[in-house]
Amino acid sequence: MSFASLGLEDFILSAVEKAGYETPTPIQEQAIPLVLAGCDLMAQAQTGTGKTAAFALGVIQNLVAEDSHVPGVKVLVLTPTRELARQVCNSFQNYASFAPRRIKAMTVIGGESIDDQTARIENGAEIVVATPGRLIDFIEHDAIDLSNLAVLILDEADKMLDEGFAEELDKLLGAMPSERQNLLFSATFPEKVVKLSKRLLCSPLEISVDAEPTVNTIEQHCIEVNHENRGMLLRHLIKTESWKHTIVFTSTCRGASNLATKLRAAGIGASALHGELPQAERNEVLYRFSKQMISVMVATDIACRGIDVSGISHVVNFDLPRSPEDYIHRIGRTARAGESGKAITFVGHEDQAHFKLIEKRAGIFLDREQIEGFELTGDPIVQQRGAAPVKGKKKSKKDKLREAGLLPPKE
Ligand code: AMP
After folding, report:
1. Quick one: 71 and 186 in the same domain?
2. What is the reported pTM?
3. Closest residue by CA, ligand 1 atom 16
4. For residue 398, is it within any domain?
5. Which residues line ligand 1 (CB under 6 A)?
6. Angle CA(182)–CA(185)–CA(191) in degrees, nearest 5?
7. Measuring from atom 13 of ligand 1, which residue has the nearest CA?
8. Last residue of a domain, one of 208, 237, 260
9. Ligand 1 atom with minimal separation from the 91 CA
10. pLDDT tens-digit map of 108-148
11. Residue 400 lies inside a defined structural domain of this protein
12. Which residue's CA is the closest to the ligand 1 atom numbered 18?
């Protein structure tokens, strides 16, 4: 299967060639003809499967064919994080670089100057990639015209819902015409995404690609270690195994900063990426990591969602992810676009039950390993059951009503 056989025109094929893509990925094969045909889509695809091009190529081709004199934004992409928004916007700009007319794409995201963004919208941006919060600000201030919107794309819809997106949705929908093409991409389809899709999509076509090929190329390990020894073990592994390009996940912003500081003190080039850092610093860290100027990035989930940095050799779950979905997302940072990679999860006594649940729900079962010098010590945590209620001691509803004087006393 070639890109040309999917119905793409020469100017898109030139951009695809420039990006170095030879054949479409499975999600691209399925999605591109449907996007070109103007269908609503509900697509299940992990990051790393080429999903951005799966929606962007067809959307750009359709946009170029439209009348450029119609005012306002024509294509709106919503993403859960600023970093992903910037990445998706870059992809649109690259894929549109050979278009017969100039297509302007921009981000509308927090942490950047509102005035600059307003000026660029007024300057005729046709494609906007936004995070919901900042977009709502623009809508409330009448600073963006969505009345001629032709395509709405939700990228990583499952994550957006976790961030309270459902509550913001009505405001967004109220600003756009009801007749439009809707494309919803999500790595997983929990109940809340299905509900959202029913509100948004009109007789959508459903497509999915097997997540297996991506996850299968990742070598997964579970290393048992006491919590207090995780930092030392991490430094030991990075140094002795000469890890080159590593993302370490922590559950808190503070944990990420502390760990990055400790790694630097041990002579390892590391920086933290989390939501409490100013946007400029987040951009800088991501840039330096993607250019391999630092070898380790210590990140929280929110800052890292959907980030496409190539050549990541190791992903470490220093703290456990909250859900099986987050586990899959985290480890999906490595082994992208056919490369191989390792994912290592640290598990202490207090994590065993939670990790077992993640394994069960994600359908993976990893051997427990220990590293010499860092063996797990102490006793497993036995889950204590609460004391069983003593039969006959609990007050009945009638007893409570009697006490309150609402029923006559017992004879
Ligand atoms: P995504 O799933 O959109 O985050 O894309 C993951 C990575 O795959 C990105 O680095 C893309 O540039 C790359 N990619 C997308 N489509 C193709 C393709 N057809 N062939 C090779 N690489 C691709």
Report:
1. yes
2. 0.64
3. 50
4. no
5. 19, 21, 24-25, 28, 47-53, 308, 310, 336-337
6. 100
7. 50
8. 208
9. 12
10. 999 888 889 999 988 889 999 999 999 999 999 999 999 99
11. no
12. 21
